[in-house]
């Protein structure tokens, strides 16, 4: 009787990275304020992310500006239809 992995996993299984790569941890808390605001918004809106999309955009913008994720266009992140209150698009 064997208690190891099923044979199908040990042969022919290859690990592949995620399509958009990994998200490095924010060790220095550079975007913690944006993350906290976003999570508080989700909490107060019963996890309705549509109410907090503007905060999601701010959080992702912070991550892109601080090198914690690759810069990408808002349309690729599903946030193209939001108006920007800041001039972060000039920095791209």
UniProtKB/TrEMBL annotation:
Subcellular localization: Cytoplasm
GO biological process, one term: mitochondrial respiratory chain complex IV assembly
Described purpose of this protein according to its UniProt entry: Required for the assembly of mitochondrial cytochrome c oxidase.
Keyword Disulfide bond set for record: yes
Family: Belongs to the COX19 family.
Assigned keywords, A-Z: Cytoplasm, Disulfide bond
One Pfam match: CHCH
Protein's UniProt keywords contain Calcium: no
Protein name: Cytochrome c oxidase assembly protein COX19
One annotated Gene Ontology cellular component of this protein: mitochondrial intermembrane space
Phylogenetic lineage: Eukaryota, Fungi, Dikarya, Basidiomycota, Agaricomycotina
Signal sequence interval, chain numbering: none
Ranges of residues in domain CHCH: 31-65
């Amino acid at each position: 009787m064997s208690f190891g992995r099923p044979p199908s996993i040990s042969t022919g299984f290859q690990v592949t990275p995620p399509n958009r790569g990994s998200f490095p941890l924010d060790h220095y808390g550079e975007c913690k304020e944006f993350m906290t605001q976003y999570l508080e918004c989700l909490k107060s809106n019963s996890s309705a992310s549509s109410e907090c999309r503007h905060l999601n955009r701010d959080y992702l913008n912070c991550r892109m500006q601080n090198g914690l994720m690759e810069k990408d266009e808002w349309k690729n992140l599903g946030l193209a239809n939001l108006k920007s209150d800041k001039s972060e698009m000039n920095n791209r």
